[in-house]
From TrEMBL:
GO molecular function: DNA binding; DNA-binding transcription factor activity
UniProt keyword terms in alphabetical order: DNA-binding, Repressor, Transcription, Transcription regulation
Full protein name: MerR family transcriptional regulator
Keyword Transcription regulation on entry: yes
Lineage of source species: Bacteria, Bacillati, Bacillota, Bacilli, Bacillales
Matching PANTHER family: HTH-TYPE TRANSCRIPTIONAL REGULATOR TNRA, REDOX-CYCLING DRUG-SENSING TRANSCRIPTIONAL ACTIVATOR SOXR
Source organism (scientific name): Terrihalobacillus insolitus
Length: 110
């Protein structure tokens, strides 16, 4: 868990998520069934959420109130995830290239 942000650690139970968001546990499980949110499971099978999941649940609930279908929300989530993965890959390539250039010219990263 080293390097993991408090926002991404999945430690919050569904009951607390329900209290924090005002969403029923049933509604939260429905969003999971529709693959809009992906909690981790404890050894006993209990769902565990992160603060980032809570933010995402609130975003989903707001979109649903606006009448956005769950399928469209899921497509948006997948697009955003793909965009983040591509940005991460670009960052890694930039760091590798910078490292190769620095090694070639005997420079050090600051």
């Amino acid at each position: 868990m080293e390097g993991e942000s408090y926002k991404t650690r999945k430690v919050i139970t569904i009951g607390i998520v329900s209290e924090l968001t005002g969403l029923s546990e049933r509604r939260i499980r429905y969003y999971e069934e529709r693959k809009l949110i992906t909690p981790e499971r404890s050894e006993k099978g209990n769902r565990k959420y992160s603060f980032s999941d809570i933010e995402q649940l609130m975003d989903i609930a707001n979109k649903r109130e606006e009448g956005v279908p769950t399928q469209e929300i899921r497509q948006d989530i997948l697009k955003e995830k793909k965009k983040k993965e591509e940005e991460n890959e670009r960052d890694i390539r930039k760091k590798m290239l910078r490292g190769q250039i620095n090694a070639q010219f005997g420079l050090r990263d600051k």
